[in-house]
Recover the amino acids of this structure.
């Protein structure tokens, strides 16, 4: 028979016959999640489109939709520049390593 320690009364009870008076009382207003997820609509922001100040995300997005603006972020897009490889330095380093280990 498996038993478990009861945090309510401090005794040991069989798992298949747990006493009703030792059942933990569940608060109906409490969620089963460790912390409820809550996303607020409140924001203090100036629109990038018309310069007006908004306190609601929904109102800001509805103003964007009405003007036909697509919301992509707050940074200006710019092309990614890849650095050019110094082929001469790479070739010289390969020759040096080859000469060092194959001498």
């Amino acid at each position: 028979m498996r038993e478990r320690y009861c945090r309510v009364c401090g005794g040991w009870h069989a798992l298949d016959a747990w006493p009703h008076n030792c059942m933990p009382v569940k608060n109906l207003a409490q969620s089963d999640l460790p912390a409820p997820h809550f996303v607020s609509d409140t924001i203090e922001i100036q629109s990038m489109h018309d310069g007006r100040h908004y306190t609601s995300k929904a109102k800001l997005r509805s103003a964007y939709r009405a003007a036909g603006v697509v919301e992509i972020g707050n940074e200006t897009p710019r092309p990614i520049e890849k650095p050019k490889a110094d082929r001469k330095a790479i070739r010289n380093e390969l020759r040096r390593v080859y000469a060092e280990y194959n001498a």
